[in-house]
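Design review, sub-item: ligand-bound model
Attendees: FS, YL, KQ
YL presented the inputs for the zinc ion complex:
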Amino acid sequence: MVLTKVTERIYFLENDKETDRPLLGYVKGDKYSLMVDAGNSRNHVEKFNDSIEKSNLRLPDYVAITHWHWDHTYGMNAVTGKTIACEITNERLKVMSKWQWTEEAMSKRLLTGEDIEFADINIRKEYKVLQDIKVIPADIVFKNDLEINLGGLVVILKNVIAPHSEDSVIVYVPEEKVVFIGDAYSIDFYDNYKYDSVKLQNFIKMLESLEFDTCFLGHSSPLKKTEIIECLKSEYKKISTNNDGKKISK
Ligand SMILES: [Zn+2]
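KQ shared the predicted structure:
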């Protein structure tokens, strides 16, 4: 899999449904570069770094995390750059860093709802040896938002209200008119697959107010601003008419 170039400063490695690997972003400043999300394992990070080197780019100096879910964070121990997460994400990382990866502990977490079957299935597919899983907290932690100057290019990390998780962080690059939204657009897998209409409406409004051309999503192809807003508005229509606030598909 090769890196896709979007602009002179923006690249991405597409998502891989096989083991639920999310899209990984790359933002190139004059001085530093930033990776968006840490991937789901050391193997995923190695694949990303290989594609970076093949494109003659520098390995990331920073890694911005969009939310705590395993597929976006379990590669944190293998990345080259300093990892950056918002406070809420980091608290979840601290909790997960204490998790045991035995059959007993894993099935117990499914019973208590700490983890979900969808993650459990994909973790087993990604990791041949479950003991290889190593979860660590971030190097840099911020509250609400953070601005990073990569040299001639500013990146803004912002914790936003979104239906997927309360720690949803967007990575916005105003000058390049792109935004990485992780899974913020999606349902909450850890809250009975709920699609919260109020949070979704908030998220749509935030996107509408943001100036960008392209939006990068965690588990599907990039969309234009009009496409993502259209798509989310139609989802909003469905859940507000059904009024049960639930949706099964991703
Ligand atoms: Zn997620």
